[in-house]
Amino acid sequence: MSNVVWTGTWVAERLGVELVGDEKLSDLLGLALRRNPKRAHLLVSNVLGKHVPQSPSVVYGHGFALGRRVRDLLGADECRAAVVLGYAETATGLGHCVADGVGLAPYLHSTRRPVPGVASAGGFEESHSHATSHLLLPENPDLLAGPGPLVLVDDEFSTGNTILNTIRDLHARYPRERYVVVALVDMRSAADMGRLDEFAREIGARVDLVTAASGTVRLPEGVLQKGQALVAEQEAAALSAPAGPAVLAARA
Questions:
Q1: What is the reported pTM?
Q2: What long-range pairs does 24-27 form, CB within 8 A, spacing at least 24?
Q3: Which domains does the chain have, with CATH numbers?
Q4: Model confidence pLDDT, tens digit, residues 142-185
Q5: Residues β-bridged to residue 125
């Protein structure tokens, strides 16, 4: 175990939270503690290269493989008209990799920061996030106006709310016949499973889902309160610990 950077099991062991899914799930995901009044846990990817050190070839390979599956799904003609959209901040790099796999498709990622003088081409809300508002600020304002498929890339597909909010906003501005949702993991609950199909029928478009693994999170009773208590405990321990060289240097 000496060469293991992070197992993702520390929070699961202390809060009783379980990741349940197919055989690939534990390789892709681990659990972290979250300082958040809405959720006690945070799903952290092992293959994004964002929070856990990972080989660039692994990071790129997972995104590129998802993009190749999108290419197989759409076919070469539709891929030539497709645009790929990644979600800030976690899936910006993943979206680039997926776009390469699709076939060097035009790529845009959302941002949380308005830019003076740049008009927004759309916006949507990510209700569970710490910073909820996303903006789309393409250099070419016509990038999203074409009729080709829109490929939406995120690290995880949990409730589906962010994806549905995005498509609802963009479909009102730039209606199209097809969307493809791409994520490393599909973590929807049983209650959320049918919402994507219902939404597709509502807007009169096809919405496909491409993921590398699927599963769900089992939360014990009172997990939010347990998580908040664990956060407080860890923060108190950090404050009482002797300051190391890095902390002393920062204070200086």
A1: 0.84
A2: 24/212, 24/213, 25/185, 25/213, 25/214, 25/215, 27/213
A3: 55-214 (3.40.50.2020)
A4: 888 999 999 999 999 988 888 898 899 889 989 999 999 999 99
A5: 133
